[in-house]
Specification:
Layout lengths: L1 E2 L15 E2 L3 H7 L4 H4 L3 H4 L4 H14 L4 H13 L4 H6 L4 H9 L1
Antiparallel strand pairs: 1-2
């Protein structure tokens, strides 16, 4: 299993809208990279059917109750606004809630 939004970013977490099954070697290769940047790596295109990728992104977007475009924006926001453990302790609200606040 892998976290679409890396836990190391201080976002994401262990919930259905962020976890998916992936081969161990792909999980290790992705590491803490932004998944939308990671998938663009040419060497992966031979190993990952992009139709499967598109389905995964649509599914995770639906589970987070956002559009695919919004999901991409959310993931990119999480990368740009990484949280430390101290930040998580002082404001434990879900990242999706924090991101939505920035839209207002």
């Amino acid at each position: 299993m892998d976290h679409f939004i890396p836990v190391a970013w201080g976002h994401g977490g262990h919930y259905p809208g962020n976890i998916y099954f992936v081969k161990r070697e792909l999980n290790m290769f992705k590491s803490n990279l932004n998944p939308f940047k990671w998938i663009k790596k040419v060497s992966l295109h031979k190993n990952i059917p992009l139709t499967g990728w598109d389905l995964l992104v649509r599914t995770l977007a639906e589970q987070n109750e956002v559009t695919v475009k919004e999901f991409r924006q959310y993931v990119n926001w999480c990368e740009k606004h990484k949280r430390t453990k101290e930040m998580l302790m002082s404001d434990p609200r879900p990242s999706l809630e924090l991101w939505r606040e920035t839209l207002n």
